[in-house]
Amino acid sequence: MTEKNNINTIISDGNDNEAISKASKILKNGGLVAFPTETVYGLGADALNEEAAAKIYAAKGRPSDNPLIVHIADKDSVYELATEVPEKAVMLMEAFWPGPLTIILNKKKIVPDGTTGGLDTVAIRMPSHPVAMKLIKESGVFIAAPSANTSGRPSPTLAEHVIEDMNGRIDMILDGGAVGIGIESTIVDLTGDVPTILRPGFVTKKMLESIIGEVEIDKAIIEPDPNLRPKAPGMKYTHYAPKGEVTIVEYEDDGINPDKDKDESPQSNDKKVIDKINSLVEKKNAQGYKTAVIATKENAPYYKCENVLIVGEADKGVTISANLYAILRKCDTIGAEYIYSEALNQNELGGAIMNRLLKAAGHRVIKAN
Ligand code: AMP
Ligand code: MG
Question: Model pTM greater than 0.90?
Answer without folding.
Answer: yes
